[in-house]
Amino acid sequence: MKRKNAVAFAAVCAGLSLLTACGSGSSGGTGTSNNTAGAAAYNAGLNNVVNPSTKAGGTLNYALSNTPDSTDPGNTYYALMWNFSRLYARPLLTFKSAPGADGLKLIPGLATGLGKTSADGLTWTYTIQSGLKFEDGSAITTKDVKYAIERSTNYAPSVLPNGPTYFQQYLTDPTYPGAYKDTTPDKMGLKGIDTPNDTTIVFHLQHPFADFDYLVTNPQTAPVPPAKDTGSNYQTHPMSSGPYMFSTYDPNKGFTLVKNPQWSASSDPNDKQLVNTINVAFNVQAADIDSRLLNGSLDVDMDGTGVQTAARARILGNKALQVKADDATTGFLYYAALNTQVAPLNNVDCRKAIMYAVNKTTQQTAYGGPIAGGDIASTVLPPTVSGYQRADQYAATSQPNGDTAKAKSALQACGQPNGFSINIAARGDRPKEVSAAQGIQEALAQVGIKAQIQQYPTGSYYSTYAGVPNFVHQHDLGIILGGWGADWPDGFGFLSQIVDGRAIKAAGNSNLQEENNPQVNQLLDKATQTSDATARNKIYAQIDQIVMSDATILPEVYSKALLYRSPNVTNAFVTEAYGMYDYTQLGKA
Amino acid sequence: MITFIVRRLLGAVLMLLVVSMVTFAVFFLVPRIAGQTTDQLATQYVGRNPSVTQIHAMEVKLGLDQPIYVQYGRFLKGIVAGADYDAGPDRTHCPAPCFGYSFKNQQPVWPQMLSALPVTGSLAIGAAILWLVTGVGIGVLSALKRGSIFDRTAMSAALAGVSLPIFFTALLSLAIFRDSVPLFPDAGNFIPFSESPGRWAEALVLPWVTLAFLYAALYARLTRAGMLETMNEDFIRTARAKGLSERKVVVKHGLRATLTPIVTIFGLDLGLLVGGAILTETAFSLPGLGRFAVNAITNQDLPEILGVTLLAGFFVVLANLIVDVLYAVVDPRVRY
Amino acid sequence: MAAPLEPLDLASPASEPGPGEPAGGTAIQGRSLAEIAWTRLKRDRWALAGGVVIVLFVVIAVASVFLKSAGVLDISTYHTDLIDHNTDKPLGFFGGLSLSHPFGVDPQYGRDMLSRVLVGSQYSLLIAFTATVISVVIGVVMGVVAGYFGGWVDTVINWLMNVFLAFPLLLFAIALTGVVQGTNSAFGLSGDALHITVLVFVIGFFNWPYIGRIIRGQTLSLREREFVDAARSLGARGFYVLWHELLPNLVGPILVYATLLIPTNILFEAALDFLGVGLKLPTPSWGAMLADAVTNQYYSIDPEYILVPGLAIFVSVMAFNLLGDGLRDALDPRSH
User: How far is it, in rounded angstroms, from Cα C75 to Cα C60?
Assistant: First the structure.
């Protein structure tokens, strides 16, 4: 009965899709939460495990449209790799493998429980399970965890450049030269971490940091045995601590994982070891991935960013396909940064003029429409990030086509009644972003602002162009398009890199709008020292509101992705931690 | 003969050297002309939040701080004698021919290219057989039946064939034969021949046909033109006058004279394709050298770009060399 | 891959002056040859059709410049009310055909396709023409100099052409245009102007050896002709002979190969767009529209969107090929 309802709903949904009534809204347009677990229905994978099964055996085929930044757990910043690497590299803590909001809960990985912090908040202590083994049968100790952090991007960026560097920022001894230049005999020279015995690890912080448990979910805390570390070649065969281990690796074609015989389900109740082999193919065209997914010769689109336009049209136009799709919230915000240093946008009213003038509907369409693109955004924090509070200072949702009158009076206020000229920066190889830039260009033209689109390659967008303030100023890049996802799903993880004035860098800058409001900086510091979660979330909401008043971030959409859930796959659901299917759970039907 | 071959070999090596120099210079200079500093170049390879010291360390590690001739010298030395690289815990040796380590994935370039080669090779050779047979066959028939319906139809199709962008035909074939009528659901999903010849062929049928369609059109036009010209030559008239059967005239005399230049062109085409059938590989996402090259370029990965350009140049030069030598064997006058 | 810039069709032997047939003659003979060629061309209906289509395209391209500034052709206004926001697909029949939008609208934006495809002809033709001019100028100068002066000059130029031919052309073009993409102003240009200039130079600069080789061959054979000897014996100096005696006789082959190079260049430009390193939206170039259809896979949900620019490319390329073929036949005395 319930199942019938769900199907009927899907049919209505397809019919109404033109009116954008379905799939939008905070509920995710589902109504499937009361759906029986396991049935395939549209959005069933958001709140239920679809095709639950304990069937073992078979081969799962993944494909990726590019190559991952690295398969080395110490050297990756891709959400898909943080999700996937848990199959062979278990961090201290991880996110619970469960659909819905439960997926944001932290649970022990190697550790036996969450971290214990001292009264002054300056140390965090973890205990790991005893008797854990690497794939070669050698014991896993906390020394291997400490070594893994010592060798990671935090301290050895010239060898492993790609990962985040939070440990280096927060732990004491920030000038530690990294494991490869460590001259102590056992290479345990980092003073910021102690390993009093083989199962205990203690982190020493420079300042209290309430979110520390989130940091140790990073694959950088997955153990690496010093004797087996081959530096930049380690990615070809990381020593497995999880249910699978590497059998082949080709940097351009992909890799194969097989079962790790040393892994035991009893020590790792969160992960599953169902299929015999996992194949990952690199560099497959996105459109090809879709076609192969739909015809069944491929099981998982590893990118986890949703199907492309053609497949989207096929899925939304076909009920039989639609029940195999999930419209997942990715936790990403797509936005236009309005640079505070480029004239005339150094005047807040000129920025407000843009905030009002832009047609949010065309922005939404540019990113893929209400279902595949996402909901029109009106705040910096997306709804899945804790700290989000509903607000709409510029009538983005109530007047989605833009408010020309208000834009014009803002232009008056900033002394540019006839408009001005400005450049828009976008990544030329991201068609959605270029579409968004065209939409902004067209909307601004209607209030007399002449915008020219400048396109740059994604690979060096942050390092050489949009992320280099000098370049931005010289080329009048007043409007810079970008997307941002949290490194961990709370306000600090989302905001710290993009609104903190002290995070502005000469290159590789993520604070594209160069927001440097002392009030915001202070509030961020206050949040890290506030241990009460509710109080913390209030601070994040306050920061969000200030940034919106500064009119430096023009939110476009809270990103969504239309994921296709192949019927070949068992135990499929979307983990909210990464906004894609939980790769640790999948089996083959 | 030996001196001829040696001379040609030396010429080929010299040519490759020049190709490598020009490529190196262009990729060294163009970003700098476009206003990038070595700092900015290095920034691309140090992750998301690099500090100034990290950037500088990467600059030194990649050798970007060195003058152009030092960098080029290192590159050549690596190819001839191998090189040592800092992999972190120790220095790994990269044996000759060492095309350096990729800036992006920090893996040696040479094995990556070797693993892409069979894909491109399979694509190029399969397509080559197909277009040679159909293209030349149709060309000869068209020439012999000049003005017939067959000739007109074939030549119109050939003209259409050379006028259509290859990625357009590629996408069309995918849309039809994989997505609408799934005859080849696994098109483009390369499986090595040694693993499963059947699936190898299945993945490649569409790319073969697409690529061969373009070249067959070209070869049909070429063969027809060549054949028509040959059939007007004196020696054909002589052969006919001798009373040879028309069949013999066509096959023994006409075809032979027509095919010699075609084979030359064929050699060069094949050389060029083995170096990377960029558009076809991109359209079908085949993980061959062409795709490798495009990825290298999007990632601005200099060692990879240099490696693949040089390898592609090598195949062209090699094809030239083989064609030259074969010519010299067939026709001793060429050796002058 | 060689396909989109396939030079070999140009190397068709049909135009080599045959033994015993004067390829040209004195000025008077030259004029008469032109007359003969014209009479022949007039009889070749297909070539004429090609010519008419080309003229039509040129008229459209020029007219669209004025129509756009007059506001008759509107390439930028969004008609989002004509679009399904979830699939980007234009509402209505076949890409949203209607009286106000006879070619429909483009997916996602709803901009008028007729305006865009007409204005787009500017880009394709401009780039293809100018690139061809560059190739022809360099190729003719190099070819004539090499063929006429011979000796070490010939050796050097010939070798240079071989080096160029050994370069993986498309690869190099992608890499070069890709690097320049990153800067939005260089050489005093910015935006579209910069990208068009880069495209023109890259395409033009890499294609000259094909023309160069042919012209060199023609010059070599002309050099030994009586009329050149006669001019020399009358005391004419090198450049006088080049300009007044050789060049007029090269006009025929230059015309033919230039006509055949233009369609290759149209395809080349489209290929660069397809690979994401050429012109990009919102610039309404045909290649950019195809690239958009490819990257967003509109080709399978809105076939009209790929057919319009695809057919525009196909028809213009075909027209140039037809005219080129016709010219070649008309100028080649033996072909009838």
Answer: 15
Residue with tokens 């030598």: B325
pLDDT number for residue C215: 87
User: Which stretch, A18-27, A176-185, A353-362, has highest mean pLDDT?
Assistant: A353-362
Q: Which residues pair with A204 in a beta bridge?
A: A123
pLDDT of B59 over the 50 cut: yes
Q: How many helices (H) and strands (E) does chain B have?
A: 14, 2
Task: Name A572's bridge partners.
Answer: A50
What are the residues whose beta carbons fall under 8 Å from the beta carbon of A423, sequence distance 6 or more? A451, A452, A453, A454, A475, A476, A477, A478, A479, C184
* CA distances (Å), origin C324, targets A430, B155, C9, C215: 39, 15, 11, 17
A308 touching chain B per CB within 8 A: no
Cβ(C171)–Cβ(C223) below 8 Å = no
Residue C93 has which token pair?
A: 């029949």
- Quick one: tokens of A292? 């192969």
**Cis, peptide link before residue C209, omega less than 30° from 0:** no
Main-chain dihedrals φ then ψ at residue A132, nearest 5 degrees = -75, 145
CA angle B112, B113, B118 (to 5 degrees): 110
List of residues 6+ apart from A176 with CB closer than 8 A: A150, A155, A168, A182, A189, A190, A191, A192
How far is it, in rounded angstroms, from Cα B93 to Cα B72?
A: 19
Beta pairing, strands B91-94 & C185-186: unpaired
CB A475 to CB C83 under 8 A?
Answer: no
A320 burial class (0-12, 13-18, 19+ CB within 10 angstroms)? exposed
The amino acid that residue A427 corresponds to is: R
Instruction: Report phi then psi at A337, rounded to 5.
Output: -85, 130
- At B80, which helix (H) or strand (E)? helix B68-81
CA–CA separation, C238 vs C231, rounded Å? Answer: 10
A226-255 residues touching B, CB cutoff 8 A? 229-236, 250-253
Q: Is the CB of residue A507 less than 8 Å away from at least one CB of chain B?
A: yes
Q: Which residue has the higher pLDDT, C306 or A257?
A: A257
Q: What is the pLDDT of residues C225-282, one digit of tens each?
A: 777 777 777 766 667 777 777 777 788 888 888 888 899 899 888 888 888 778 877 7
pLDDT of the residue at A33: 40
A272-276, A293-297, B25-29 — which is least confidently predicted? B25-29
Higher pLDDT, B112 or B45: B112
pLDDT at B315: 87
Q: Is the CB of C296 less than 8 angstroms away from the CB of A316?
A: no
8 Å CB contact between A278 and B286: no
Percent helix, strand, coil in chain B, to 5, is: 75, 5, 20
Contact residues for A497 (Cβ-Cβ < 8 A; gap 6+): A484, A487, A503, A510, A511, B49
Rounded distance, CA B32 to CA B55, Å? Answer: 17
Pairing of strands A574-575, A580-581: antiparallel
**Interface confidence: ipTM more than 0.90:** no
Residues 6+ positions from A169 with CB-CB distance below 8 Å: none
Inter-chain CB proximity C301 and A313 less than 8 Å = yes
Residue-level pLDDT at A9? 30
- How far from each other are the two terminal CA atoms of chain B, in whole angstroms? 10
Chains in contact with A, counting 3 or more C-beta pairs less than 8 Å apart as contact = B, C
**Pick among B84, B86, B278, B285 to test the A interface (most A CBs inside 10 A):** B285
Q: Is pLDDT of B112 > 80?
A: yes
Given pLDDT bands bounded at 50, 70 and 90, which one contains residue C2?
very low
Contact residues on chain C for A428, CB-CB shorter than 8 A: 181, 276, 280
Quick check: A101 contacting C, CB < 8 Å?
Answer: no
Q: Would you say residue C26 has pLDDT above 70?
A: no
Partners of chain B (3+ Cβ pairs below 8 A): A, C
Q: What pLDDT, on a 0 to 100 scale, did the predictor assign at position B48? A: 63
